[in-house]
């Protein structure tokens, strides 16, 4: 660490809440909430990339009261209790931060802001400081040596940035917060002084001390209600001074650590792998497994012993006939198609793969047409020979999302029958609200195996190859693995389903029989009545007018029900409904899950939810 290397201080508590409210409520297969963990760790990994040579310390709020509660017993009294789903994610975040080798600080009696302010004050004489946060209160720390970074919005603020955003320099941020107060933290402020009034006072007269020294000038200012404002300020002098003290970040906390102690230690990759697997963070798990430098202890790794694999690329008639004989004798075989497109209406099959026993699979290509592609069997040979098998309803087939394969086979005049098992549907029935059900995710989750990803062999973006353009040396193992993994997933998932009679009934009697039905619907479309839809639209429009008037009556005036900003003002300012969640930019959230929660106790959110649902239906 050189004198010019910035010290990065992360406001972990700020990101904890922001990640929780900004991201969807993700869970792993066990129902464990993981969204906030994913968000916070993503931001830390981003900081590691942006500041590769910098020490990065992560600071969290400690449990219990702080010195501010002693100053003002009602401090943060209006803040709702931490949601259980968020509380459950704190320890996993701490564990991952520790395994990443990042210093983690939790100091009792003060807030994370105060620890960050103290460390920034200690460090700024020797080196620049970057404070990573989404909290506007931190703007008071900005100076020539301290910069704010918000990785959620990808914004940076130096002194000029603070003035551009707030209209005042960093030195007046505390005064700004003290004048207008903070409903979330229950900082009283001066009643009747909002953001615009506070800004005008500060720009005209200076800080709070200057304002109170020049109260006689307040009535002359071009501020709405200026004539009565001086009395409001005078009557609330004690509240303003208390608010100033509450809003001030303490920069002299007694710490047991020094700047020199904030060193990035080597990551514990074994521990990280275990945590990522437990939380089912597939991408990060893959990254660790593929990192040649990752030191993963065999004792810690939960991956099963490697399975010996025999993946064949079939390009001659004799070998193909041998496999056909295996398939004819098999009680069940895994089957997969490789195609030119994900659009099943346009896709053409370029090869097929199958497996009968774990670890052994074959890929039969016939449509790879890149320059110098090796000789392959013809489409007529392969699909012509397979058609009787594929159309035989008594020949049991297994696949991963066989509905897609059924659709693309139909493009070749083959009607897939005998759909006996589908590993994607097995996973879905076992855990319909959990993690993703794609093959790569399921292989990692149930088999502990990282598969070949399509991007690994085809590239990404505009230059990504279609499967017919991929060399057989790469396409073969990928395609054969698809069939093999499908078979092994079925072998892992089927016993779980058989152990639950109700779930097995859903799988056997509902999901599997629906595969060919949905395939036909997707190919043929559905008939609709234009006249009936038009009539329904008129009926919904009438209902929307009724709901709109109900909302106006409850709100005490008209407003745009489709405007989150106007709705927020009505709910949280006019009706004084408590704010239970904020957007990443700090505004009170009116997202659907927030309204659902509020609808238990307040009538307007109930009306808004019904209005939104009908409006979507009408559109």
What does this structure look like?
The chain is of the alpha/beta class and 619 residues long. The protein folds into 3 domains: 7-163 and 250-261, 5'-nuclease (Rossmann fold); 310-524, Ribonuclease H-like superfamily/Ribonuclease H (Nucleotidyltransferase, domain 5), CATH 3.30.420.10; 530-618, Taq DNA Polymerase, Chain T, domain 4 (Up-down Bundle), CATH 1.20.1060.10. It has helices at residues 12-22, 35-50, 67-71, 84-99, 112-123, 159-166, 173-180, 195-205, 208-213, 226-235, 237-247, 269-279, 282-290, 317-329, 379-391, 402-410, 423-430, 439-447, 454-458, 472-498, 501-524, 530-555, 564-574, 592-598, 603-618, and strands at residues 7-11, 56-66, 104-109, 129-132, 146-150, 155-157, 310-313, 332-339, 349-357, 360-365, 396-399, 419-422. It has a 6-stranded mixed beta sheet with strand order 3-2-1-4-5-6, sandwiched between helices. The protein has a 6-stranded mixed beta sheet with strand order 7-10-9-8-11-12, sandwiched between helices. Helix 16 (402-410) links the parallel strand 11 and strand 12. Helix 24 (592-598) runs antiparallel to helix 25.
């Amino acid at each position: 660490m050189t004198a010019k290397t910035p010290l990065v201080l992360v406001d972990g508590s700020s990101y904890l809440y922001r990640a929780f409210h900004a991201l969807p409520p993700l869970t792993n297969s066990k129902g464990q909430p993981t969204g906030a963990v994913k968000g916070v760790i993503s931001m830390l990994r981003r900081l590691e990339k942006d500041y590769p040579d910098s020490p990065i310390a992560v600071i969290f709020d400690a449990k219990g009261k702080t010195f501010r509660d002693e100053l003002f017993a009602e401090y943060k009294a209006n803040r709702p209790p931490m949601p259980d789903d968020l509380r459950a994610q704190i320890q996993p975040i701490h564990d991952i931060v520790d395994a990443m080798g990042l210093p983690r600080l939790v100091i009792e009696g003060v807030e994370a802001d105060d620890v960050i302010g103290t460390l920034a004050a200690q460090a700024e004489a020797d080196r620049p400081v970057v404070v990573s946060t989404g909290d506007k209160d931190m703007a008071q720390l900005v100076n020539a040596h301290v910069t704010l970074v918000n990785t959620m919005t990808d914004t940076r603020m130096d002194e000029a940035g603070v003035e551009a955003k707030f209209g005042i320099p960093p030195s007046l941020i505390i005064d700004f917060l003290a004048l207008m107060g903070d409903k979330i933290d229950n900082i009283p402020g001066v009643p009747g002084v909002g953001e615009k009034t506070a800004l005008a006072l500060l720009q005209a007269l200076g800080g709070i001390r200057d304002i109170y020294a020049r109260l006689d000038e307040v009535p002359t200012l071009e501020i709405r209600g200026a004539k009565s404002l001086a009395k409001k300020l005078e009557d609330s002098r004690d509240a303003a001074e208390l608010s100033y003290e509450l809003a001030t970040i303490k920069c002299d906390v007694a710490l047991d650590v020094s700047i020199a102690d904030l060193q990035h230690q080597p990551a514990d990759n074994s521990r990280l792998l275990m945590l990522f697997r437990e939380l089912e963070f597939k991408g990060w798990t893959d990254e660790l497994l593929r990192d040649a430098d990752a030191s993963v202890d065999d004792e810690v790794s939960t991956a099963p012993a490697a399975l010996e694999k025999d993946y064949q690329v079939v390009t001659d008639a004799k070998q193909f006939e041998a496999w056909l004989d295996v398939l004819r004798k098999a009680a069940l075989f895994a089957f997969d198609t490789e195609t030119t497109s994900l659009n099943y209406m346009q896709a053409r099959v370029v090869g097929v793969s199958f497996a009968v026993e774990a670890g052994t699979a074959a890929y039969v290509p016939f449509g790879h047409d890149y320059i110098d592609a090796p000789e392959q069997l013809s489409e007529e040979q392969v699909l012509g020979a397979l058609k009787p098998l594929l159309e035989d309803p008594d020949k049991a087939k297994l696949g991963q999302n066989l509905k897609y394969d059924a659709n693309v086979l139909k493009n070749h005049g083959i009607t897939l029958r005998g759909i006996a098992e589908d590993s994607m549907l097995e996973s879905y029935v076992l855990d319909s609200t959990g993690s993703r059900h794609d093959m790569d995710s399921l292989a990692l989750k149930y088999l502990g195996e990282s598969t070949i990803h399509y991007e690994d062999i085809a590239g990404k973006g505009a230059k990504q190859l279609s499967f017919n353009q991929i060399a057989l040396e790469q396409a073969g193992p990928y395609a054969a693995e698809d069939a093999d993994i499908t078979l092994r997933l079925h072998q892992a998932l089927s016993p779980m389903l058989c152990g639950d009679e109700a779930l097995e009934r859903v799988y056997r009697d509902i999901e599997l029989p629906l595969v060919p039905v949905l395939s036909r619907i997707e190919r043929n479309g559905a008939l609709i009545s234009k006249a009936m839809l038009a009539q329904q639209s008129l009926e919904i429009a009438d209902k929307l007018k009724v709901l709109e008037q109900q909302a106006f009556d409850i709100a005490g005036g008209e407003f745009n029900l489709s405007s989150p900003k106007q709705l927020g003002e009505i709910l949280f300012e006019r009706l004084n409904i408590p704010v239970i969640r904020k957007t990443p930019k700090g505004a009170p959230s009116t997202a659907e899950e927030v309204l659902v929660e509020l609808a238990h106790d307040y009538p307007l959110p109930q009306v808004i939810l019904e209005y939104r649902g009908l409006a979507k239906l009408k559109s």
